[in-house]
Amino acid sequence: MDRTVRTVEDLLTLLDGLFAARAEGDRLATGDGKDFWDGFYADRSREVPFFVAKPDENLAAYLDQGLVASPGRALDLGCGPGRNALLLASHGFDVDAVDLSPVAVAWAAERAREAGAEIRFLCGDAFALPAADLPGPYDLVVDSGCFHHLPPHRRISYLSLLARVLRPGGHLALTAFAADEEGMASQLSDADLYRERRLGGGLAYTPESLRWIFSGLLAEVDLRRMREEPADSPVFGEPYLWTGLFRRTAVRGRSVAGVA
Q1: How far apart are CA 29 and CA 24, in angstroms?
Q2: Cross-strand pairs, 177
Q3: For residues 112 and 211, what is the distance between their CA atoms, to the nearest angstrom?
Q4: pLDDT grade, residue 28 (50/70/90)?
Q5: pLDDT-based confidence at 256, cuts 50/70/90?
Q6: What is the DSSP letter of 29?
Q7: Residue 174 to residue 170: CA distance in whole angstroms
Q8: How many alpha carbons lie under 13 Å from residue 206 in its C-beta half-sphere?
Q9: Is the pLDDT of residue 162 over 80?
Q10: Omega of the bond leading into 71 within 30 degrees of 0 (cis)
């Protein structure tokens, strides 16, 4: 008989286990961690839209429109093969980029070498890395596809990380699955996700849910559908995604969204 829960992190780790890797036919379920993502990125020839070295259209627009000032310090969470990290480096940002998958990080580092870009890549769980590896403060945190693959309880870790590394006045540029009739991602309630014990390819969000999750820590600057981009566009865009820009608000003398 084990008694393993004494801290909040112990509880989060226990809940992680509910979504542990298990076979679904001949593959692992999305969101099951490093093994899934290593397999996902292993075949670079697959026709996956965001395998192409194009940055997100919204991130490019934020920079072009001056909504995000450059240069500065930037963190790319779940950087994948480095699409957005390369754009940030080209705008003069000092970029840290982290991903759970060594295969993705190796691909991103290869692209950075080919482009002559100076980017600091880290491989691991952003919530478990030592604070010295992600020291902050960052002027910009970019997340294109990390947040919507987190189980609900890890939103606590996500908000805590933002509260620690994003400077007051800094920005989060977020891309996440939209909840709609297309069914691109799971629209189960948080409670039902724990009953099913699977993330169903990622979690869908409404604008209201995103505003509520980030309230108290981040203020909305822009929240819209990603614009659809043609194949020959220099940027990536698919309308089944929300794009959001949020600004870190000053917080004094209290915890934010339940995190210190």
Answers
A1: 6
A2: 241
A3: 34
A4: very low
A5: very low
A6: P
A7: 13
A8: 8
A9: yes
A10: yes
Tell me which residue has tokens 């008989």: 1
Kindly report the three-state secondary structure assignment for every residue of 183-251: CCCECCCHHHHHHHCCCCCCECECHHHHHHHHCCCEEEEEEEECCCCCCCCCCECCCCEEEEEEEECCC
- Measured between alpha carbons, how far is 150 from 111 in angstroms, rounded to an integer? 26
Would you give the end-to-end CA distance of the chain in angstroms? 32
How do strand 138-144 and strand 27-28 relate by DSSP bridges?
unpaired
Degrees to nearest 5, angle at CA 228 with 99 and 209: 60
Task: List, for residues 176-186, the tens digit of each pLDDT value.
Answer: 999 876 667 99
Say yes or no to pLDDT of 163 above 50: yes
- Positive or negative CA dihedral for 69, 74, 75, 80? positive
Enter the DSSP assignment of 67: S
Nearest to 53 by CA among 253, 216, 236, 244: 236
- What six digits make up the tokens of 82? 């480095």
Q: Is the confidence at residue 73, as pLDDT, over 80?
A: yes
Residue 45 has, within 13 A of its CA and on its CB side, a CA count of 0
Cβ proximity of 94 and 119 under 8 Å: no
Pairwise CA distance, residues 5 & 123, whole Å: 27
Give the integer Cα–Cα distance in Å for 90 and 77: 18
Tokens 């981009």 found at? 229
- For Cα atoms 192, 196, 202, give the angle at the middle one, nearest 5 degrees: 80
Q: What's the average model confidence in pLDDT over 159-166?
A: 97
Q: What's residue 258's pLDDT?
A: 47
Which residue in 103, 87, 78, 76 sits closest to 53, CA to CA? 87
Q: Specify the pLDDT at position 21.
A: 64
20 has pLDDT over 80: no
In single-letter form, the type of residue at position 49 comes to: P
